[in-house]
Amino acid sequence: MASNLRARTRAFAVADNNIATFHLLLTLALWIGALWIGTAGFGNPVFMAVSVVIFVAASVRLFGVQHDNGHYAYFTTRKANVISGVILGAFTANPFHTMRYNHNRHHAHIGNLDEMDSHEVTTWTVAQWRAASPMARLGYRLYRSPLSIGLIGPLFIFFIRYRVPKNARKVGLWDCAMQNALMVTLWLSVFAIGGWRASVVQALGSFSAAIVGTLMVYAGHNHEETYWRDAANVDFEDAALKGASVLELGPVFDFMSFNFAYHDLHHLNSRVPCYRLRACHNALRDELEPTRLGLWEALGSLRWKLWDEDRQRMVRFADVRAEAGEMRHV
């Protein structure tokens, strides 16, 4: 069934430069408009809140464009995708070529426990947890804590780690140098045009976008019945459809996230551009059996910490402790 579904997604794996350009220009207008609203209404809670919400939406959408650029899926030509992806690095804080290399490794090794370094969030198995030292366990607990996933991690990754991301040397440090120069130029331009108030709005919006984006990615793969296997047993199509969730948060969220919600289909066929993902999902709705997450289920994904290879699902630390207690009393 999965193979048949993948074949049927190819009808949607067609870029359209007119649609792509429209969405890019609209998103850039939202980004600029958010800065204008926040700067003009600086200090007013309502104006500031509206500004940050629009800025987050625009930033996440720009990240979606750059992400599709990395798959050469957004525009019809490789050259247009590369030019767009490099320029958008100024907005997303992500060097394009290094991002593309790392993200495509994530796609190639989706669901593979033996290639954990390829994925955005490290996941231990229960067996790894039991074999780990107390200090290693503490480190993993802190790493997977809501504070790290929802605040410290996003800010560190986007504004410090992404200055020179992992594998940057393999791709070329010139990529990071170019992106960082573009990013500094953008931030200085905002300050020169809008003053310190505009820079504050940009900082608030960028920090908020990093947090929202990280939580989206986390919920996209970290649901209870996700998919993990050792390298010898990974089925790519099952990993795509079972290892990624569908975030059912409504059409406004779909617009704000540029259809990130349909992450399972994206992993099934990464050449479907983001502006066609929703239509693709609707066309295959009756045949898909996705893991659907509402708002509370998505936020609840933070409680899943370890992959239980015996039960083939994610579990909490408390589940492992309870099981250990039961075994001691046998």
TrEMBL record:
GO terms for biological process, alphabetical: lipid metabolic process
A molecular function (GO) held by this record is: oxidoreductase activity, acting on paired donors, with oxidation of a pair of donors resulting in the reduction of molecular oxygen to two molecules of water
Q: Which UniProt keywords apply?
A: Membrane, Transmembrane, Transmembrane helix
Q: Name one GO cellular component term.
A: membrane
InterPro entries assigned to the protein according to its UniProt record, in alphabetical order: FA_desaturase_dom, Fatty_acid_desaturase
- Please state the span of the N-terminal signal peptide per the UniProt entry: none
Where does the sequence pass through the membrane?
A: 20-39, 46-64, 142-160, 172-194, 200-219
Domain Fatty acid desaturase per the UniProt entry, residue ranges: 50-296
Output the PANTHER family linked to this UniProt entry.
FATTY ACID DESATURASE, FATTY ACID DESATURASE 2
Protein name stated in the entry: Fatty acid desaturase
Organism, as annotated: Pelagovum pacificum
